[in-house]
Amino acid sequence: MAATAQNLVGWSTLPVPGRPDARRGRGLAWGVLLALGAAAAGAALGLVASPGPGDDHTTANLAWTAAAAVQTAQRSEQRARDAEEALAGARSRLEQLEAAGAAQEIRDWQEATRLGLDRALSVRGALWGDDRRRVLAAMVREARRQGLDPVMVAAVIEIESGFDPFAVSPAGAYGLMQLMPPTAQELFTGKGSLKRGHLFNPVLNIELGTAYIAQLLRRFDGDLRRALIGYNAGPSVARALIHGSKSYRRLQAYPRAVLAAYRDLLLAQQLGPARLAQR
Questions:
Q1: Looking at 111, 142, 158, 160, which residue is catalytic?
Q2: At what angle do helices 129-146 and 117-124 cross, to 10 degrees?
Q3: Is 85 a catalytic residue?
Q4: Considering only CA atoms, which of 150, 155, 163, 91 is closest in space to residue 121?
Q5: Domain covering 115-277, topology
Q6: pLDDT at 98 over 90
Q7: pTM surpassing 0.70?
Q8: Tens digit of pLDDT for each residue in 110-145?
């Protein structure tokens, strides 16, 4: 009888269709399906779902997955806002740098004008408009960078090319400061390959030419005449020269010409353009 009663009790606990217990069972099954679907959606979004409070707490697991999805979306939105702010800041700094560079170029151009270098270019008429402004600014900027006198740099350009950015010598030297391509490439080391046509860029030519003069001055312990001979005939020739020799006297013509042009440019600051026009 006890077994019969136990069996009866057991049967009485089984769900019967239409009863509330059966409806609760179906609700539990739908909850499991919804939780699995939410977990799959979370995985598709790149979430790593936590086991939550337990497999039998499907509602809590579903809530946790939904909350994790919301948090991930919020973090993504925050990262996007941070990236936009960083980009805006970078653009602002770039604009400031560009503005500062433009302002500095104007100051360098004004300094070149004060030194009378604009008159030298006006007499030659080889450069006009923005090109002339950039060249004048480059002479001051690159001379200052190399510790040179901008007027001396202009004097070298005057003798080498007469301010013609497209000048080519019979020996194969190019541009304003008449640079030989192998020498220019050595000075351009670390910045890529340099083609001969690049030396017709007057600003680049001045950058490399002033660097070469500064290099020669260091090599010859500040001896300007010997450095200029090295610039004109090559550093090995300048180093091998014997003071007072026939070659020494012949090669002195180049530094004398540069220094004469230098004096004329200095005088032009005081006498105006008439002095240059007579040359």
A1: 160
A2: 140
A3: no
A4: 163
A5: Lysozyme (1.10.530)
A6: no
A7: no
A8: 999 999 998 887 777 667 778 899 999 999 999 999
